[in-house]
Amino acid sequence: MDFLSLFFMDFVKQLQSPTLGFLIGGMVIAALGSQLQIPESIVKIIVFMLLTKIGLTGGIAIRNSNLTEMILPAAFSVAVGILIVFIARYTLAKLPKVKTVDAIATGGLFGAVSGSTMAASLTLLEEQKMSYEAWAAALYPFMDIPALVAAIVVANIYLNRKKRRTADEYLSKQESFSKQPVAAGDYPDRQDYPGNRQEYRKQKDSADNRVKIWPIVQESLQGPALSAMLLGIALGILTRPESVYESFYDPLFRGLLSVLMLVMGMEAWSRIGELRKVAQWYVVYSLVAPFVHGLIAFGLGLIAHYATGFSLGGVVILAVIAASSSDISGPPTLRAGIPSANPSAYIGASTAIGTPVAIGLCIPFFLGLAQAIGGG
């Protein structure tokens, strides 16, 4: 009963918080047909400032802390990001009318991290006066990059195997005819012409090429979200940005976050229509996956808590970033890395359902769970 009461109290508080309030508000005005638009350039500036602030917080904390404390949480972050991709590969991809490559891309997006969801969790932890390591925000790239890389690698391996299998089947089929004389009516289907065998051999050869990992990592690092985050971390470690942090970035943080939530709410509503074009299993996955992913990370976080003293607030952050799905860096990275995947499936599942579930339900759920375990 203590856990349930804590959860419902936190859930009600989250409904009343500006973070979720602006998100729901954005969905409502979009549903009512409002013509309100926030220019894309302004949204990019807001995202840059939010993630730079989070990066600065983490960088300053890393500079003033023992780096060995980060090793286990960082390792768990990497493991969770990769694991989420394989969970989607062997669960979502097996469901009716779900294309494997779309399922893998969805897993990559859910394995990657939402900066806005993480920012919302940090805000609520501060409101609840629950302590956490300031460097916990720096776990973001340790989960985000491995998830995106894993998704792109797994998808390309799958596509290459599929291409190679198709080429092998065709060449095997034609091999029995290769020594027979060719007559005009022997190949009514154009794709069966012997002249096309060379094309299939080229496809097979291209499928044998290995997926290159570094370009994927490089593209992720150069994305706007991670660039801002890593810039903030680097400045926090290598310089003394406390004065500009305290006078500019910190005071503006919550206001800018509320504007971003409004934008995300409007976009979430627009993406709901796109989900109708793909299998309804994406809706089920988007409702269940954030809790499953978060619980896995929460369990690993508890191991770090008992083994190294990792705070319960840090455990909550680890669980929330696992429950979140990337809304900034992930989509463009996956569009480039898995161009054959359907964005309506993985972006629609993430933005329309995954993000509201992570912010509105998962944050209070894991916060309440941590408070129940901590006895407060």
UniProtKB/TrEMBL annotation:
Keywords (alphabetical) are:
Membrane, Transmembrane, Transmembrane helix
Enumerate the Pfam families for this protein. Answer: Sbt_1
Q: Which residue windows are transmembrane per the record?
A: 20-38, 45-64, 70-92, 104-125, 137-159, 281-300, 306-324, 345-367
Task: From the UniProt record, list the coiled-coil ranges.
Answer: none
Segments carrying the region annotation (Disordered) are: 172-206
In this chain, composition skew of type Basic and acidic residues spans: 187-206
Per its UniProt entry, which superkingdom is the organism in?
Bacteria
The name under which this protein is listed is Sodium-dependent bicarbonate transporter
Natural source organism: Chroococcidiopsis thermalis (strain PCC 7203)
